[in-house]
Specification:
single chain; 126 residues; alpha/beta; Rossmann fold
Amino acid sequence: MTTKRVLVIDDEDGVREIIQFSLEAVAGWEVLPAASGSEGIDIAQAQQPDAILLDVMMPDLDGPATFQQLQANTTTCHIPTIFLTAKVRTSEQQQLLDLGVAGTIAKPFKAQELVAQICDILQWSE
């Protein structure tokens, strides 16, 4: 089995570090960190990750705007994207899903459950 490569786009250093540690330690995945939407778009185009974890609320280019740009680009539109969001109400989650993302993971998340949540959403085997 090839190692999964996951792009993590989040403006909070601590969140990126927790996610990176969790995915590398629990699943052995390679993590590509990005601190902004525009940086994430550049990395997605160049590195072609297997999936993207994308924070919804970021300055400048927020998650939905970043996702729209990824979807508009033929080199990145096929990459499954999961929103990381503090919005936990069902109606808010549904609005995000309606944009076309693969799923949502609520913040704060439990680091030890993150891999299982990603695998469940993307139908990857752990």
